[in-house]
Amino acid sequence: MALPIRWLFSLICLLAVQAAHASLPLTVIGTDQATAIAPLSKIRILEDGTNSLHIRSALQQLNNSSETHYGKVASGYSDSTLWIGFSLNGPRGQKFLLELGNPFIDEVELWVYVQGQMTLYRNSGDLLPFSAREEPYPGFLLPLPAANTSPIPSLCVT
Predict the structure, then answer these.
(1) Scanning 11, 22, 40, 88, which has the fewest C-beta atoms within 10 Å of its C-beta?
(2) Do 56 and 119 touch, CB atoms closer than 8 A?
């Protein structure tokens, strides 16, 4: 008698997990939004193979000795830390989202200038719970600060 009850309990648990998984909302980019997507025009990338840089030293090296890319960048998989610098231009109050399509990034930190100082604006990553993400998106979809002035310098650490 105990075996059928265990089997029935297991089946109910399995169905409950599947129903909960199916009901999780995901952010979906529609076709009208996809046509409005524009890659960053200029991106500076610094690879830190020793993972020893911090925000101040990385920013200095990023400005002086990093690679410059134009358009989309696919960096692949690496154990290195990538420091990515970019600036945003847009009308006052314009909202931006940063899409990182790789769902296996361990840690993402988004730093921005606030009154001349670098400040941690957002952090995310695969090591944090999925529910901690601001947007339920398979990769990472990070809201960037609204444009109050033009340009807005920003730095993303992945």
Answers:
(1) 22
(2) no
Q: What's the helix, strand, coil split of the chain in %, to 5? A: 25, 30, 45
Q: Tell me the pLDDT tens digit for each residue of 14-70.
A: 555 554 444 455 566 666 666 666 667 788 888 888 989 888 888 888 888 778 888
CA distance 21 to 1: 31
Q: Tokens 């690496």, residue? A: 78
Q: Which residues contact 72 (CB under 8 A, 6 or more apart)?
A: 39
Query: What distances in angstroms separate CA 21 from CA 69, 86, 110, one per listed residue?
Result: 39, 36, 29
How far apart CA 83 and CA 69 sit, in angstroms, is 13
User: What is the DSSP-derived secondary structure letter of residue 24?
Assistant: -
CB atoms within 10 A of CB 129: 6
Residue type, 13: C
